[in-house]
Amino acid sequence: MTSFSVTEIKNFMAKLLATDCFDSFLLEEASISGAVNYHIDGHINKEFYTSEEWEDPAIRPHDFASWSQMRNICFSMIKGQRTPSAFKFVLHLMPEYVPGVLKGADPSLKPEQVKALVLTVKYDGNAVTIVTGTAFTSFVMDKTLDAQWDKTMRQFLTKKGIACLEK
Length: 167
Description:
This protein is an alpha+beta fold. Helices cover 29% and strands 30% of the residues. It has one domain. Strands 1, 2, 3, 4, 5, 6, 7 and 8 form an 8-stranded antiparallel β-sheet that branches. The chain has helices spanning 9-18, 51-55, 67-78, 98-102, 144-159, and strands at residues 3-6, 25-33, 37-41, 65-66, 86-93, 114-123, 128-136, 164-166. 23% of the residues are buried. It has 5 helices and 8 strands, in the order E-H-E-E-H-E-H-E-H-E-E-H-E.
């Protein structure tokens, strides 16, 4: 787990909310505090779909809503005359990208053992931090995936022109 402090908040927010920069992620949850508090549960709602639709990966490819579907909604809650007092986004790398990250980790680790590669983006009224995290379907002793995910995110942030300091 690594924490990054964003040094150019306006640039980062534009990339997060107004471009496809983070569209390879899914939204687990969003909390935005402003004049009112908003909370979005990114879990796909099974009751909304027929049983056939629920089982169809073309209709419901993931368990969470994609960031590309949700970012305009989040942006509409944030934009305005005043910045929000706080927000938090919990993002998961889409499962189809996990094998690429695994290439630099323990070769015995299989994609199905990885529950999530997580980014938590927090704003506290003053600063934006990005924290990496990993979750597995069962206990894993090896920590090479944690290190590889941190390295992947360092490279991602640099490639996308997001200025950060590692804490």
